[in-house]
Amino acid sequence: MTDDLEFKPEDDRYHQLSDDPYETETNWWSFNIPERKIGCWIHAPYYPNRRTVTWRIFAWDDEGYDPARMAYFRKVEEAPMPDAPDLTDITFPGDKAGPGYSLKMIEPGMKYHLLYEDPSRGFALDFTHTGLHRPHRFPPGKPPFMQTPHFDQLGHVEGWMTLRGERIRIDGIGVRDRTWGPRGGPYAASPKVYASDMDRVKHPGGARWREIERERGRGRIQYIFGHRKDGTGFLGFARVQDGDADGWSPMNAGWIRRDGNFGSLAEGSRMRVFRSPTTGWSTHMQVELVDEHGRTMTSEGFVVSSMSEAGYGVNQLMRWDIDGGIGWGEDQDVWRGDHFIRVLDALKAVG
Hints:
mainly beta; AttH-like fold; eleven-stranded antiparallel sheet; eight-stranded antiparallel beta barrel; 2 helices; globular; DUF7065 domain-containing protein; DUF7065
């Protein structure tokens, strides 16, 4: 990575890039507790030119996927936040239910402490994320991050979750990311115009639901990752719109990590997903990867538990077979509602 693309200690703070009302800067933290089939997120987009922040914390298991039935869910939208807050030591504003979570930088770019408590629900988080490597930037000029600075960082997550009053140990691998730049609104719309839905399909053929899934200009993103506890694993984005009739989609903007060494995903990396005709969500995945050093990795993943805020886009805890060992990670499957419904109708079609 060249010096101009390296992330610096000052990138632990918020940036002020423009006066665009859609300017957004995020911080995201994830981890899992496999023995309890639990996945957990903390996510906070800050809108510097609107001077507000939206944050949400949720934990899910296999007992319910929607906000009312998840193990825990709380969201605070557009809470007022003062100019230029210090992201290295901050407690996010809350609402009448209580304050938001606290984030404190311990070592620039590498180690952080997060703290949150909701006594009314018997829920709390107290953990550290210690990076296994320096923040890893996706190459600019490639989808899905054409210009926006973005990095992912694999880390050891250690601490405690309190769930319905029960104290549960956290000790495993998690991923965090940061992104800053305009998003949403006009930035979410495709500039391309298509005469018909079929004109959107780059490679027609195959199962009808797969054909609908790979329509271009629908805002589809699928992001998957899986790592063993020693950090061996992979991460990347599937370019579903460029997939073939057999269901294989190319992958990019990610990595293979083995023996502590990274390799950026190279041409030939791909994934194939199998979906439930009941929910429309992924149930099983095949991944075939190659990196810039010529190393290969083949993995299969199975869904363990799922959550969905809106009923269409979904985050899922995945169990992966990686290099002869078991790893854990996620499937983040982003949809537009009307597009997902068409795929689900095709999956459910009879006769």
